[in-house]
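fwd from M.: "can u put these together and see what the complex looks like"

so here's what she sent:
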Amino acid sequence: MTAVIQTEELGKRYRTRWALAGCTLSIPAGHVVGLVGPNGAGKTTLINLATGMLAPSAGTIEVLGGRPAAGPAQLARVGYLAQDAPLYAGLSVADHLRLGAHLNPGWDAELARSRVDRLDLDPRQKAGTLSGGQRAQLALTLAVAKRPELLILDEPVASLDPLARREFLQGLMEAVAEQEVSVVLSSHLISDLERACDYVVVLADSRVRVAGPVDDLLATHHLLSGPRRDPASLPGALQVISASHTDVQSTLLVRSSGPVLDPAWAMSGVGLEDLVLAYMQQAAARPALRNSHRRLEVQK
Amino acid sequence: MEDLVIEFHLDGRSGVVPYLQLIHQVRHALRLGLLHKGEQLPKVKDVAAGLAINPNTVLKAYRELEYEGLVAARPGVGTFVTGTLDGGSLAAHGPLRRELQRWLARARRAGLDDESIEALFASTFRSASEDVEGTGRWAG
């Protein structure tokens, strides 16, 4: 199966600053991918490269096997929802659906209408008077009804209240179940995406820190605690992601394909949120890598 | 969503991954006789939309239950219960429940509060299970 997003040493530079650097990814189809990282980590840059709104400064990117925004056929295959759900304030809900029908060759009018019905939106209401949650739902409806193979959403829930956030994700998961569309969505909070995503890409400080299916990541990361010792003395197969020490005890978050068989260590599982935070902390602890173009050892 | 027998819920703080929570809830319903052979599990789309979870998570849970022989998927129709977990003991639930109710009434008359009753039950349950395990081990 073709990767939905395939990048090789992809980078984007603004003057002297690399907003994204050395990004090598291969995201398979059929997933809901969470792109997580702190603000300014490069999430929107990667999304803009994938939608063809930015051109790379280095490396390559392919989306569904084609060059981003290469032509009408490529554009029709990718749905994109920008931050803060941009709509035309002066146009009504029905106008937006008409617009969608005219602009998209694969428009599914039936799907659009049934979603608007279920959302209880008045077709005559102007978009400018909708609530934030309703605007986000209408924008999602437009993106879904064009029947894309890949749906890219930039921080879709960041500005929504908790109820609207839940409703938006419900609508999105319904679309995924009904239409088998692949999804990439970004957020600076993994807790927003934890239930929805089955694949994560952690970005921090312009680089990909870790990427993979959630189940694989949870199965290969462990929390070890035991008598204090130098992480450098651990077997080479263990990769230490984060370490904290007291006078007598060490707690390590490690990546390892097999169980850790040292009886001195108590081993337990790690939640997705702790795992993601550990990679972000690791990035923060190694600022020397900033703007350098060398490849990180913690890539997938 | 007509004739739905069970409805799933997720506990975000339990530390148990969502697909296992779904499996536990189906097994629990089977064990208590809330789900019967031939009944349909909620559709993947409805569970995904209801709980805002990834449809693959639901599919994974249903596949696992299918592997255990408890349910079977009929393509295009849904997933249906094919097995039971009550071990034929469901008939015994009524009399056991009545005995337990009598015992609870006695415990209250003896002055035990809710917490003491739970603690007594839990510790007795634990030591009884240990006895059973111990017997098994020595017998083996």
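replying to her w this: The longest strand of chain A covers residues 3-14.
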